[in-house]
Amino acid sequence: MKKKNKRLKTLLLFLVPIFTGATIIFYNLKDNMVFFYSPTEILDKSDEIKSFVRLGGMVKKGSVSKENTFFNGANVEEVSFIITDFKNEIEVKYIGILPDLFKEEQGVVVQGNIDEMKVMRATEVLAKHDENYMPPEIEAIESIKEKINDI
Amino acid sequence: MTSELGIVFLFLALILSSFSFIKLNFGFFNINFSSLCNIKITNIVFTLIFSSFIILTYSFINSDFSLDVVVNNSNSQLPFIYKITGVWGNHEGSILLWLLVMAFFGFIFSKIRNINNEFKELVLTIQNSLIFLVSLFIVFTSNPFQKSFPPKIEGVDLNPLLQDPGLAIHPPFLYLGYVGFSIVYSISLALISNKGNFKFIEILKPWVFISWTFLTIGIGLGSWWAYYELGWGGFWFWDPVENASLLPWLTASTLLHTILLANKNSLFFKWTIFLAIFTFILSLLGTFLVRSGVLVSVHAFANDPSRGLFILFLLLVITLFGFIKFLKILDNKNHKEINFLSREGVISLNSIFMLSLTFTILIGTIYPIFSNVILDKKISVGAPFFNSILSPMMIPLTIGMIVGPFIKWGRDDLKFLINRIRYVIILILISSLIIWYLNFGGPILSIIFFILGGSLIASSTYELSLFLFSVKRKVKLSKKILSQILAHLGIGILIIGVTGSSILKEEKIQFQSIGEEIMIKEFNVKFLGVRSVEGENYISQMGLFDISKGGNIIKRMTPEKRFYNSGKQMTTEAAISSGIFGDLYIALGERSENDPDEKKWTTRIWYNPFTLWIWMSVILLALAGLISFVRFSQSRL
Fold first, then answer.
1. ipTM score of the complex?
2. Would you list the DSSP string of B598-622?
């Protein structure tokens, strides 16, 4: 009896924190996940997309432009460009320094919020880091581009 | 011609180490292979791999463009030092370095005199088997001596981001840490087969401490590089690959505590073996994450799915082998009871907290893979998740570090304990009041963490002073105590550094015209203009900024944008002015296209409080690890 009790105690001692821990972790995880979408998915699922998302695609040729605007009381330059997956397009606006490898007709992933006008207000722009490396999402996009070029 | 020799040497190493692998696996079935001398195999294999590595280095120095890896990662115009570091600035070469380090640890182990020969053989059998698996990976999926066809006359260049002294030495240190745990793994498995003999745990100790020290320096260097080279103003981004290096560091740090008790209590012996095996597995997982490219990470290299599968296979084999062996020692249950209020109790609690932290970060890191494969949803887990987990966990861990060292071994009494730490409590109250008063203008969270870090620094300093200014001359400051104090002091300083530079960071992005002044903190940043400067293999646009404080010019800062000709790539070189209370950090953006006078540039200016403290803590932690290493390598069996 005594031994059984002790075993139950140890079991509880381990299971309770593990269970609470796991619950907290997954709740936390759910709140902090950032979903990745293509322009087409953003337009299709626009009802469910409300929070912070990642958007990936190709920077459309000739779409990059810069204009002056005010941000936090300072005069800054806002970059805008169009991300395309060759079916649909989303306009992106970003204030900040673009990564060194950001170019037109190259893959890019931006992170931010989509506003009512379906414009992405990016807080972060991720371009390729190494010229040989591409995030898997961008790689998929590049292969689409090649197919289109072949046709 | 020489490059052919390189792959021949690797093949020979593969064949030789396969003997140990066969012996290990057939050893399970009790077939006698006793005539095989693993010490000799270790020595020859190390010589072969070392020669192969030298040949690859030689090919890089001589710009031998008949090799694929040289073509893709070097250039005849590259400065000499980067021709050498280019050897590990790519997938194939870095895995060869990984293998070299693994063979090197085996080689050093084989040279230690006073270890029982039978035990040494056992350890080296396992180490050689690991070498066999990794060389299999190199020869079949990542041959660094792959010929380029047709041969090229000029190389593409080394990624300019890697052309930096900080990054040049980051991989070797990180690998010495990661792979150092391969010998820890081998010794631990040998200890299981040699069960009951707790004395042999002494052999394990120096390897754990030196590997941990290298890993600490390796992570520190990587973080430092990211801070000054990437121009993002941060030191840690919770990128999957960064997490992958943090995970083995967390388990290894836990291991440092349990190993001290491993020969006194069989419960801690089990903890130690478990953590030793787990740490190496996490190191391998890190390699898998970096090399397979399954996760979106800035560190990932151009990749090939077959490599990912192969490493996954290695990971499975090594994990299964380790844990099946580990189950063998789980059954003996007769360990001593542990009091909650004792040093042993605190160390147990520490282990539980640290492991929970490790598992949480592990889940956050690999959950995107599951989500992608199983749920078919592409997600990434951002920094807020990790911060929300780490912050609450740091509170009990820090309190443990403050009180723990004052708790007695075996059994302690709460009244006596409080009496013993009364001065610590007073010190903590005083430092909390000072921090509360200084405030640093931050939110409540930053004050909590400043108080925690400050208290840990105060209690560690108090502990040190107990030994330095002891009235009774009897208590001497041993290496053991010194190492513990330095390590805890280091963590205290780290907490201050991380809190300051993440929560209290100030950022200003703007268009700055030539001559315009921007105020940040108490500094006045005046933009003087941009000048063209030519480097050895790049052209740079150098921004000139005069920093003044209270009307006096104190410093000129020169952030750059570099354009590398051979690879047609740009890099940002931030200018950083470090001080004990914070860093002023400037990154130069692009010139405005809409301004007719061409006088406006985008500039990004940060004030990062206490960032210097992070690097100081890395030095303290490494020093603490080294002291323990020296202590344990002197007192062997």
1. 0.73
2. --EEEEEEEEEETHHHHHHHHHHHH
